[in-house]
TrEMBL record:
Classification of source organism: Bacteria, Bacillati, Bacillota, Clostridia, Eubacteriales
Protein name per the record: Delta-aminolevulinic acid dehydratase
Organism: Caldinitratiruptor microaerophilus
InterPro entries associated with the record: ALAD (IPR001731), ALAD_AS (IPR030656), Aldolase_TIM (IPR013785)
GO molecular function annotations of the record: porphobilinogen synthase activity; zinc ion binding
Family: Belongs to the ALAD family.
Pfam families, alphabetized: ALAD (PF00490)
Function of the protein: Catalyzes an early step in the biosynthesis of tetrapyrroles. Binds two molecules of 5-aminolevulinate per subunit, each at a distinct site, and catalyzes their condensation to form porphobilinogen.
Cofactor: Zn(2+)
SMART domains for the chain: ALAD
Subunit structure: Homooctamer.
Length: 335
C-alpha cells in the first residue's frame, strides 16, 4: 500500500514511533522505566555452625550459610552495588512458640552483629515471623488446632526488638497477624528504637509460589495450611484494606508478595498509597526461571531483567529478589 493512500488522521507518516527505537543510544535516552542495583534487596538464609555453605536444591545458586560464610556473600553483594539484604534464620532448636526467634544468640542476631561490625554500609533488614522457629511450622501460636492471633503479637514484638538490639536497620513482619505492625512499633518505640523503620508484608497471599522457600527455610506447616491468615489469591480490594491498616499502625514501607502473579495488586497499591512499595520476587518465580534456563528453554538474563523491569513498571520501588547478584552483574556489563 502506498503511503499516500493511508487515511489522513491516523498520525502516519508524521508520527513514526520507530524513530525512537533506531539505536541503542536513543532507546536508552527515552527509556521510561529503569532497573538499578539500588532497587534490589538480596534475601539470605543464615544457619548455625561455621564453614557451612550448602546449596539449596530447590533454589540453584542460593545457599544455607553460616555467619562466617554469610559475610563473604555480603562482601560480594556490596562489591556489586547491592547494598541491602534481608535475613532469614534457621535455628538449631524449634518449639511450639518459636522461642529461638528472639534468642540473642540466634543465627539472625549473630549475623546482624557480625555484618554491622564488618560491613556497616550494608543495610540489614530482618524477616520477622515464627514459621522458621516453630515445631509446627505455622507463623503464630497454635491453640486448639488453630493459629491464635493475639497471643502471637507479643512474640513477634520480642523477635523484632531482638533484631533491633542486635543492630538491624529495618524489620519486616511477614506473619500476617492482625495488629502486628502496631505491636512491633510500640515495642520498638518503648525501647528507644523509634527510628527503626518497619517494612510490612501487607498484601501477602496464600500462594503456591512459596514451595522452594519452605524447603529452604524448613518452614512448611506440619498440619493444615496458612489460608486462615494469608490472603486469598482472588482478592485485590482486600489488599488495599490490609495496606491501609498497616500504614495506620506505623508501617513505613508496604509489600506485595508474591510479585509476578500480583502485578495488578502492586499497581493498585502504588496508586492508592504515598509510602514506598516493595514486592517480593519469590522462590517459586526464581526456581521456574532457573529450571527453564538450565534446560535451555529460555534466555535467563533477558527473562529476569524483563520480569524485574515489569515489577518496577507496575509500581515497585523496591524488589526483594534472589536474582539480585546476577542482575547486578548484568547491569554492570550493560553500563
Amino acid at each position: 500500500m502506498a503511503v499516500e493512500s493511508i487515511r489522513v488522521g491516523t498520525g502516519f507518516p508524521v508520527q513514526r514511533p520507530r524513530r525512537l527505537r533506531a539505536s541503542e543510544t536513543i532507546r536508552r535516552l527515552v527509556q521510561e522505566t529503569r532497573l538499578g542495583t539500588d532497587d534490589l534487596i538480596y534475601p539470605l538464609f543464615v544457619v548455625p555452625g561455621t564453614g557451612v555453605r550448602e546449596e539449596i536444591d530447590a533454589m540453584p545458586g542460593q545457599y544455607h550459610l553460616s555467619v562466617d560464610m554469610l559475610l563473604r556473600r555480603v562482601e560480594e553483594s556490596l562489591g556489586l552495588g547491592v547494598r541491602a539484604c534481608i535475613l532469614f534464620g534457621i535455628p538449631e532448636h524449634k518449639d511450639a512458640t518459636g522461642s529461638s526467634a528472639f534468642d540473642p544468640q540466634g543465627p539472625v542476631q549473630r549475623a546482624i552483629r557480625e555484618i554491622k561490625a564488618r560491613f556497616p554500609e550494608m543495610y540489614v533488614i530482618t524477616d520477622v515471623c515464627l514459621c522458621e522457629y516453630t515445631d509446627h511450622g505455622h507463623c503464630g501460636v497454635v491453640q486448639d488446632g488453630r493459629v491464635a492471633n493475639d497471643p502471637t503479637l507479643d512474640l513477634l514484638a520480642r523477635e523484632a526488638l531482638s533484631h533491633a538490639e542486635a543492630g538491624a536497620d529495618m524489620v519486616a513482619p511477614s506473619d500476617m497477624m492482625d495488629g502486628r505492625v502496631a505491636a512491633i512499633r510500640k515495642a520498638l518505640d518503648e525501647n528507644g528504637f523509634e527510628e527503626i523503620p518497619i517494612m510490612a508484608y501487607s498484601a501477602k497471599y496464600a500462594s503456591a509460589y512459596y514451595g522452594p522457600f519452605r524447603v529452604a527455610a524448613q518452614s512448611a506447616p506440619r498440619f493444615g495450611d496458612r489460608r486462615s491468615y494469608q490472603m486469598d489469591p482472588p482478592n485485590a480490594r482486600e489488599a488495599l484494606k490490609e495496606v491501609e491498616l498497616d500504614i495506620a499502625e506505623g508501617a513505613d514501607i508496604v509489600m506485595v508478595k508474591p510479585a509476578l502473579a500480583y502485578l495488578d495488586v502492586l499497581w493498585r497499591v502504588k496508586e492508592a498509597t504515598k509510602v514506598p512499595v516493595a514486592c517480593y520476587n519469590v522462590s517459586g518465580e526464581y526456581a521456574m526461571v532457573k529450571a527453564a534456563a538450565q534446560r535451555g528453554w529460555i534466555d535467563e538474563r533477558r527473562v529476569v531483567l524483563e520480569t524485574l523491569t515489569g515489577m518496577k513498571r507496575a509500581g515497585a520501588d523496591l524488589i526483594l529478589t534472589y536474582h539480585a547478584l546476577d542482575v547486578a552483574r548484568w547491569l554492570r556489563e550493560d553500563a
